[in-house]
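Example 3.
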Amino acid sequence: MNVKGILTATRSKTPLVQAITNYVTINDCANVLLACGASPAMCEVAREAYDFSRLSAAVYCNIGTLTPEQRQAIQEALRGAAEKEIPVVLDPVGCGAIPSRIDYLEELRSQYPIQVVKGNLGEIKSLAGIETQVRGVDSVDNGEDAVEACVSLAQKWQCVVAATGIQDVVTDGTQVAVIQNGTQMLTKITGAGCMAGAVIAGFCGAAENPFKGTVAGLLAMSLAGEKAAAGEGGQLPGTFKVKLIDEIHQLTEESMAASANIRYFSV
Amino acid sequence: MNVKGILTATRSKTPLVQAITNYVTINDCANVLLACGASPAMCEVAREAYDFSRLSAAVYCNIGTLTPEQRQAIQEALRGAAEKEIPVVLDPVGCGAIPSRIDYLEELRSQYPIQVVKGNLGEIKSLAGIETQVRGVDSVDNGEDAVEACVSLAQKWQCVVAATGIQDVVTDGTQVAVIQNGTQMLTKITGAGCMAGAVIAGFCGAAENPFKGTVAGLLAMSLAGEKAAAGEGGQLPGTFKVKLIDEIHQLTEESMAASANIRYFSV
Amino acid sequence: MNVKGILTATRSKTPLVQAITNYVTINDCANVLLACGASPAMCEVAREAYDFSRLSAAVYCNIGTLTPEQRQAIQEALRGAAEKEIPVVLDPVGCGAIPSRIDYLEELRSQYPIQVVKGNLGEIKSLAGIETQVRGVDSVDNGEDAVEACVSLAQKWQCVVAATGIQDVVTDGTQVAVIQNGTQMLTKITGAGCMAGAVIAGFCGAAENPFKGTVAGLLAMSLAGEKAAAGEGGQLPGTFKVKLIDEIHQLTEESMAASANIRYFSV
């Protein structure tokens, strides 16, 4: 299996992605969606979220700053997404630090289909009911049992699960991809995880299935990160962030295929 | 007619601009207001919006992420603006995709004076009641009848109307300016339209009339975009956005006059 | 007295800083916290703010866009901070322009301990009850009596008070530090003040006392600003902002000690 064609499909279809996301990195998410070829619609108002999701090719929900208004908007967006059968990508930010967020996500998932959950390892483990180490919204887990945690949650929730870290792990509960690309610089800026989630939603809006869309999305972010970090000033976080958007924009099928370091196996 | 002197007036008067705007690009709007010589006040709290608008030289309202709190704040700000007779610039983001936003804007306009409406062509046509093509918050209209649409809305709403696109059109219902500057790079980042609206508000806070302020504002954005796109890395969206702010800051009366490509005519 | 060791302590302890801050510069605040070695948690939801503050090493409250939700979140965060006895840094944005904000801050301060108030001179004078000149959220005070104003408020509120300006003044009511570093470029971007507040909170989360943490935080911002302004393109606001984050990231104990221009005296 490979992820060839997804970048091209995204750039030719320009999928509209409704994003309900935190205020910290909402601008970065919109810009990264444009850079990967998708079209961002950052609508978080409850009364409009249902209509917007029905126009969209994918929905991205990120609970980093989950206001009461956003809670309602997520409900409405997921209702529209379920009716239109479009993929929903959920980013469970901070559910390791704040246990009540787990209850919220469990309830959400019992009401509406979720195709992809993408978090850091601490968040994925927290949702899977496995003990882990977090510091605020960041995971400080060493990542030894990342595959087991992702498979466990994927089987429990019946969806694609991705955990970001030194290695990124993606699974649909039967097949697993381990992406060994990336750079530590992605941890030096805020929003790398949110941007990854947004790109996954963009790719899932154009991909044939959410597993491929998720692998391609995380690969795109990791490779763009590698290139940004290697450029002039790329070891400095302000410059790195600017170059990261530049590099997402410059990705090609060829450059992705040439640099990808992905290991696939079955559970 | 020309727009000479407006940039200089803005930089010497430092007009305070109250902006109630979407969370996606609020930072860019504040920075572009500073870069063009104005002073940003991004107050969106209902209980303070009336007081802030009365201290301001212009008000910018952008409905991109229109929360209930922002709805109230816009009412309060427009009440203050009407009392102080300061210009109000309205950015009808997304009204092409979400028809209920048209009703909202119609109601707002029936209650308070609006001096300028600035949108993409899809939004302007939607407000004018003309059929158009949109994708989410973006217009995909080919722009053939942009002048007619702007004139129609300007006459209906009795205000200055501007539609951005490959060409920017500005009209007060009798005179028309068509600005043939700009760059496609402005469509590769989020917020170029919002920033244009903010600059228009800044310029209208210092200009003798809103038609001139609007022409000058769109010209400034287009010329800064051209220069940013022509610089090193300017074809990459992350770098382009940084340079766009740099170029707004570096605009001069001379550089604007030398590069302006504006056609004026009467309706 | 000097501020040696605080940067190192911040980078080794990685203090979690809960920030409830305005939507305009929330991304910059998160990135500057990472760049100085702290860990940002930008939680502003009332139902979660108490829990988050109890996990944190410091709390930063900035009232730039004070929504009803943020008001409640600040209450909850300050309650948690008081119980855990962690430092609270308050940024009284706009209280010079909007007098009702003074009442709000007075009430807040009567209910919960505040360790540091950091504002521009107009804001500090407004809180101290001294006449001043403001334009929107910016101070246009000439700064002659900055020390007196800070000492007055520090003695009235029994906390550390810092006023930013051409010179930055910090006092705990008995000792005073006047920092003569910095650059005018910090006034050409939005959020320099907010970022300074965030860095102060990060440093106070690792410093032995809030006076030292505040002096070190303002010094770090001023020195990073100087270096950013001196670099290529550093006189342009878009580029300057990118380099400012880069330079915060590159600060060292040695570079801070070598460039610091601080005058200390007793009241």
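Residues 95 and 102 of chain A are 6 Å apart (CA to CA). Chain A touches chain C through 31 residues (CB under 8 Å).
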